[in-house]
Automatic annotation (TrEMBL):
Protein name: Proline/betaine transporter
Top-level taxonomy: Bacteria, Bacillati, Actinomycetota, Coriobacteriia, Eggerthellales
GO CC term, one of those recorded: plasma membrane
Family: Belongs to the major facilitator superfamily. Metabolite:H+ Symporter (MHS) family (TC 2.A.1.6) family.
Source organism of this protein record: Adlercreutzia hattorii
Gene: proP_3
Major place of residence: membrane
Positions of transmembrane segments: 38-57, 63-85, 97-116, 122-141, 162-188, 200-219, 258-279, 291-312, 324-342, 348-365, 386-409, 415-435
Length: 448
């Protein structure tokens, strides 16, 4: 009897150890995949002036820079297309297949950008190749965030789902932070227009995507598809059915939660780009604040964001996703306009505190959103529902956040105009969250 009990205990311990090891591999691969995507975005943004010099037609530097960012903006058109494709394939062929395939496409496109010939060598072919590669990158990346969060949510213990899913938004900020740090180091060491930076320095972050992508692909191929997804497939096989039209199922039977999720994602889209990418430009161009101090504040905020995001995910496991997302909406509605007035103070301490508070509000949203979206849709359309709501919101509102903010200031002559835009988006997100259900205490297999 004692021997049998000991044997059963040993088997249970081994099983728990294997499950924890699998969860760690899923967590690491989810973090790395999303990190590669945002490290690429950060590198492209911070090295934009160099890319304009090397790959765009010679002439007016401002025109070349606009062309460089134009290529970046055009590539976002592929995100909704990618959302349909990867969402469909992720629900039909499995999360593992979609993630293992998308990471190869995404990292390969980013890697080849680092090998592009200059405009001096191949002429107009250089920017054309850059646009093609950025479109491939954007297409493949559109399934990364949704897929990584879905995969993690379906593997994570129910009572720690929020904490594990917060790894995904944390990896976005980590990518931005490392990209910023690498660019700053190169520029401070060699200068913006040094031969090293223009010939090879700017290529390094893109080339790093190659080995990082292969490592992530290797890890993903060494784990099974999520237990939740496998259970769904087994039930379908037992009934003699197949999940071959997840997008149609999503749009016909789950349209309401899809629209509500889109509304919830609007705050994430505008908030992330506004707080972490637009505010540094706002401080420099509109407020006239020192560029070095503005960059330092942004770096501090990125570090704080990474720390806050895990705390937010953990708290959401205790109090629920709906409460957290409503708190974030109310916080932005109440605080954004006073925050923009305080940003005009030109005082380092005040500006830092204001941005940290906005960063905290953002993490209450971001640290909760990925687990909320994973819990909103049933297993057969979870990847599709997440990918479509998240990517459409980011394609429409995220990529345009800086442009709309600048345009509002130009049209109204009011430096506070972007704050009112942020408030309007927060009101829409608040209404959406009031219409949703909180499934944070449910098992994912119970969501219908």
């Amino acid at each position: 009897m004692i021997s049998m009990a000991s044997s059963e205990t040993a088997v249970a311990v081994q099983r728990d150890s294997e499950e924890h090891a699998t969860l760690r591999r899923v967590a690491v691969s989810s973090f790395l995949g999303n990190f590669i995507e945002w490290f690429d975005y950060a590198s492209y943004s911070y090295f934009a002036t160099v890319i304009a010099l090397v790959l765009m037609p010679p002439g007016d530097p401002t025109v070349a820079l606009l062309e460089t960012f134009g290529v970046f903006a055009l590539s976002f058109l592929m995100r909704p297309v990618g959302a349909f494709f990867w969402g469909h394939m992720g629900d039909k062929k499995g999360r593992k297949w979609a993630l293992a395939t998308s990471i190869l496409m995404m990292s390969a496109a980013t890697f080849v950008i680092g090998l592009l010939p200059t405009f001096e060598a191949v002429g107009i072919l250089a920017p054309i190749l850059l646009l093609c590669l950025r479109m491939v990158q954007s297409f493949s990346a559109s399934g990364e965030y949704a897929g990584a969060a879905t995969f993690l949510a379906e593997y994570a213990p129910s009572n720690h789902r929020g904490l594990y899913c917060s790894l995904v938004p944390a990896s976005t900020a980590t990518g931005l932070l490392i990209g910023s740090a690498l660019a700053t180091f190169m520029f401070m060491t060699w200068g913006h227009d040094s031969s090293f930076v223009t010939e090879w320095g700017w290529r390094i972050p893109f080339l790093l995507a190659g080995p990082l992508g292969l490592i992530t692909h290797y890890i993903r191929t060494r784990v099974s598809d999520s237990p939740v997804y496998q259970e769904m497939q087994e039930k379908l096989e037992a009934k003699g059915e197949s999940d071959d039209k997840p997008i149609k199922l999503l749009l016909t039977k789950h349209l309401r939660p899809l629209l509500v999720s889109f509304g919830a994602c609007m705050l994430n889209a505008v908030g992330f780009y506004a707080v972490l990418t637009y505010l540094p430009n706002y401080l420099q161009d509109t407020v006239g604040y020192d560029a070095g101090s503005s960059s330092l504040i942004t770096t501090i905020c990125l570090v704080a964001y990474i720390a806050f995001i895990f705390l937010s995910g953990r708290i959401s496991d205790k109090v629920g996703r709906k409460k957290m997302l409503i708190i974030a909406c109310v916080g932005f509605i109440v605080f954004t306009v006073p925050a923009f007035y305080l940003l005009n103070s030109q005082n380092f301490a005040i500006i830092l505190i204001v941005e940290l508070v906005m960063c905290l509000l953002l993490t209450i949203n971001d640290g909760t959103l990925s687990s909320y979206l994973s819990e909103t849709f049933p297993t057969e359309v979870r990847y599709s529902g997440f990918a479509l709501s998240f990517n459409f919101a980011n394609a429409i509102f995220g990529g345009s956040a800086s442009f709309i903010s600048i345009a509002l200031i130009e049209a109204t002559g009011n430096a506070i105009a972007p704050a009112w835009y942020m408030v309007a988006i927060s009101v829409v997100a608040f209404i959406a969250m009031c219409m949703t259900h909180d499934n944070s205490k449910k098992k994912l297999t119970e969501i219908q």
